[in-house]
Amino acid sequence: MSAVRWAFGGAFAALLASAACALEVRFEPVAPGIYAHIGDKGARTVENEGLNANIGLIVAPGGAILIDSGATFSSARDIHAAVKRVTAQPVKWVINTGGQDHRWLGNGYFAAQGAELIAHTSARADMLARGGDQMQALRQTLGSKADGTTPRLPTRLIEGRDAVLELGGLNLELRHRGAAHTPGDLMIRVPVVNTVFSGDVVYVERMLGVIPVSNTRTWLEAFDALAQWNPAIIVPGHGAVTTLAIARRDTRDYLAALRVHMKKAVDDGTDVSVAIKSFPLGEFAKLLVAAEIHPGNASRAYLELERE
User: Fold this and answer.
1) Number of H helices, E strands in the chain
2) Quick check: 1 pLDDT over 50?
3) pTM greater than 0.85 (yes/no)
4) Which residues, other chains included, contact 157 with Cβ-Cβ below 8 Å and sequence gap of 6+?
5) Could you report the per-residue pLDDT of 205-232, keeping only the tens digit for each?
6) pLDDT mean over 60-64
7) Which of 111, 2, 115 is nearest to 62 (CA)?
8) C-alpha–C-alpha distance, residues 160 and 151, integer Å
9) Contacts for 199 with CB less than 8 Å, ≥ 6 apart
10) How many whole angstroms separate alpha carbon 242 and alpha carbon 244?
11) Hey, what long-range contacts does 220-223 have (CB within 8 A, 24 or more apart)?
């Protein structure tokens, strides 16, 4: 059975259902040996323990590989319990796909279980720069649910643009093309099933977030590097398991349109407030939280293009 058919049958329907139940961490199969928990598509809350993002799981012959560790010690413990319901294999590796809180602040829990923590060197720098602020924000949002969370940096660092890792005969391909949503955004492909964990390079169903550490130009480069793999299945950073066509529609097309519009506004000397209001959202308005997030995205893209 092909990876596409395997993912987009009953497993895909189960993933959609799991997205509506944010309180329980649950890994659903997307391809042989590949699983995903689809997190809340809304804000961080006490109920979701700050885990409003997707988490991946690869069951390899040499052990389990976790893609991201959750936002807190508590959510990491929930993630580990969900892993144990899928496999008896120990978690050997945790790969952080970026420096956003829900990608790495659960590292301390998994390090205590003996897992090796892996990330791109740019992600580690981002964690160092923003970890204190992330912890403060989580404590304000989660209260006691943040208890026990201690920032733990990855110890095995990926450098450069491309790398290959191997565990028990299973190869993983890794790509980094500079800052996307965050400076260390890392994409991971499992070639045997042509499945990609995109991290925050891809958002579907909800609008992506351009934050102060984002870079829309290299984000597009990262997306294009992902597209070169021609993946059959993409587990995005946010939203349901998806295809390359949908990922392009919800992520790349929006970023490209945003840059074109804001570049013209900068070149024409149009005031940023006017440029934001004149952007034609069109079909992008259907994405979740578009009305709340787009103005900030547009403002930061304008400032970025002024610097280019």
Assistant:
1) 11, 12
2) no
3) yes
4) 118, 119, 120, 121, 124
5) 999 999 999 999 999 999 999 999 999 9
6) 95
7) 115
8) 24
9) 67, 68, 97, 98, 103, 180, 181, 185, 186, 187, 188, 237
10) 7
11) 220/252, 220/255, 220/256, 220/259, 221/177, 221/178, 222/175, 222/176, 222/177, 222/178, 222/180, 222/185, 222/187, 223/180, 223/247, 223/248, 223/251, 223/252, 223/255
User: 37 near 82, Cβ under 8 Å?
Assistant: yes
Name which of 290, 137, 115 is nearest 208 in CA terms. Answer: 290
Mean pLDDT of the 40-60 span: 93
Phi, psi of 304 (to 5 degrees): -65, -45
Spatial distance between the Cα atoms of 241 and 36, rounded to a whole number of angstroms? 8
pLDDT in tens, 182-199: 999 999 999 999 999 999
Q: What one-letter code names the amino acid at 292?
A: E
CA dist 285 and 282 (Å) reads: 6
